[in-house]
Amino acid sequence: MTIKTDVVIVGAGPVGLFQVFELGLQGLSACVIDALPQPGGQCTELYPDKPIFDIPAVPECTGQQLTDNLLKQISPFNPGMHLDQSVDTLEKRGEEDFYLKTSAGTEFECRAVVVAAGAGSFTPVRVRIPDIEKYENTQLLYRVRDPLQHAGKDIVVLGGGDSALDWAIQLAPAAKSLTLVNRTERFRAAQSSVDKLNAMAAAGEANVLMGTLNGFTEQDEILTGVSFTLRDEEKTQVTLPVDDLLVFFGLSPKLGPIEHWGFELERKMITIDLSTFETSVKGIFAIGDINTYKGKKKLILSGFHEAAMAAYAIKQQFEPDMKLNVQYTTTSPLMHERLGVDADTTTT
Ligand SMILES: Cc1cc2nc3c(=O)[nH]c(=O)nc-3n(C[C@H](O)[C@H](O)[C@H](O)COP(=O)(O)OP(=O)(O)OC[C@H]3O[C@@H](n4cnc5c(N)ncnc54)[C@H](O)[C@@H]3O)c2cc1C
Asked: What are the residue ranges spanned by the domains of the chain?
């Protein structure tokens, strides 16, 4: 059965979620599709427990809290959420109709599409040691879902960027042992994190080594150790005991099928018209980290603004003869009706 809706949003990151809200205020229905099993994009996939400080009027919230609040905010508009499936096909059929199909076989028809696909589908850069992939999702992990899960364990963290150092610093106090191994003495993380980890190492609370992973040991289908060639003159070989191997080599952005949907790209990002956020294909809009324009800042708040601009443009495209005025959610009865609130009884 094909699902019919006004707008399909590709990507349930913070910006795609907020797009639902802005479309809802315009009286437009939306479905959201994401390749990940949970909404929130980078916020829930990469830093669910880390605090964000630059969301206007929210002094501090974690990536997960921001996502939970967005889901609450869009709930009056009851969007169709289609997770764990990527949009593989996007076709324009006629002047105003689009057809989309996901990897799960779900089909959609809509009048406009908003691509809010961030950096594309997330693909962590993986370790390249033969056969180690069999421990993926059990002992070889590319993200931390629950920090408590690692308490009391021998942890080895690979990488030298912010994620590697942040997690090493956070997990070390409760770990049985924690060793961070970076390829070189040069870290890509914030200097304050490097200083903190070095201080922890000096105090015996963590270990820091420079070396390259070259193998692993196992017993009864359990990963027991990881071996490294150190960067000293002797190229010393060490094997560290390991329960959990956490790898933070970064994400390789994979645009995937988006690359073939026919709009103009610039360095793998979608160019847009700044007044509407429409791509070079009429009826397809692009917001958030996926788009590019002069002065673009890849920030959540920029994406929120872009979502509002796109919603107005889509409404105007659907109803070209309509004079579209800005309506305040504070005072507009129409906005209250769409939000399902009774402003007279709503208190702060
Ligand atoms: C460690 C870290 C800390 C950060 N801290 C801040 C901060 O403090 N403040 C700030 O403003 N920004 C911060 N950012 C940046 C911020 O997270 C991004 O700007 C924001 O997530 C962009 O939102 P988005 O919705 O455009 O894209 P994303 O969050 O990347 O979401 C895009 C979604 O689209 C999905 N997708 C892609 N292709 C497809 C497809 N074909 N089919 C289905 N789904 C698809 C992806 O799975 C993903 O879930 C941080 C980023 C990182 C990595």
From this structure: 2-122+252-339, 132-247
Pocket test for ligand 1, best of 15, 70, 108, 300 (most atoms within 8 A of CB): 300
Architecture per CATH, 132-247: 3-Layer(bba) Sandwich (3.50)
**Which of 42, 74, 142 should be mutated for ligand 1, with most atoms under 8 A from CB?**
42
Dihedral sign computed on CA atoms, order 312, 315, 319, 324: negative
**pTM score, whole prediction:** 0.76
Under 8 Å between Cβ of 118 and 290 = yes
pLDDT digits 0-9 by tens, 249-267 = 987 767 888 888 989 999 8
Q: Kindly report the CATH number that applies to the domain delimited by 2-122+252-339.
A: 3.50.50.60
> CA distances (Å), 2 to each of 5, 11, 105, 107, 204, in order?
10, 19, 10, 5, 60
